[in-house]
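fyi for ur records
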Amino acid sequence: MPAFTTSDNVTIHYEDKGEGFPLVLVHGWAMSGTVWAFQNELAASFRLITADLRGHGGSSASETDYSFAAFAADLAALFDHLRLERAALLGWSLGAQVALEAIRHLNDRVAALVIVAGTPRFTAAPDWSHGLPAADVRGLALRLRRAYDATLGDFFRRMFVEGELSAKQNQRIVREIVIPRPLPDPGAVLATLDTLAGGDHRQMLAAVTCPSLVIHGDRDAVCVPGAGRFMADHIPDACMATMDGVGHAPFLSRPELFNGMVNRFLREVAIHD
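which gave:
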C-alpha cells in the first residue's frame, strides 16, 4: 500500500488511481478512504487520490496530535509527496473542515473545492444554530467509551434517513464499504471528536478564492442543511447543490447523481484552465 511518513512520524496511507486532473478525496470522522468505493468510476476522468487521515484506515496513530492543523498539514504533505501543483480537493463532513484548513497551506495549488455534507462548526453556540448540541457530542464520546463498535455502527446508520436506501443499496454498502473498512484507532476517534467539538472555520470561508461547490442532503441529521447553506453563502461565488431526500452521505446513497455533479463541476471550472 502506498504511504509516506510525516514530519512527526505518522504514516499516511493513500490510494492513487486513474490519470488526468488530480482529485483528492478526504473522508469523514471515524471513516477511511474505503468510503469512496462508489466514486471509483471518477478515475476514468480524473487522477483519483484518496487518503486515510491519521489514526484512520491504514494510516498510523499519532501519539499526541489530532488537531485540524495536524490533519491539514498531513494533507499538504500528501500534495508535496505526490508533487501536486494543481488539484481539486473534495472533503466530506470532517474532511470538509480539514480541506478548509489545508487551503491556508496550499493556496493556489487547490484549483477547485467541493464540500460534501460539511459544516464550518460542528457544535452549536449562541451565535451558531446549525450545529449539534454540545451535550449530544459529549454523549457520543461516552457511548464510544462504553461500546465502541456498536456506537460507530449506530453513527453510520444515522447518516441515512428512512427510505433513502433500498435493500439492494444497503447490501452493497455493507459489502463494499462497511465490511472492508478497518475500524479506526479508538484513541484517534475520541481525540478527533474533541477536535470537531471545538473547531470553528466560519472565519476561513471568505478566504476561499477557488471555484467551490457545496453539496448537501436536505435531510442531513449530522451536519444540518443550514450549515451547508451558510457555507455556500459565505464562500465567494460558491455554488450550492441540494440533494432531496438524502442524509449525510449522498455519495453512498446517490452515487451516480453525485459523481455526475462532481464531474460536471470540475470540467467547467478546473480542467480547462
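The chain has nine helices and eight strands. thats all i got for now
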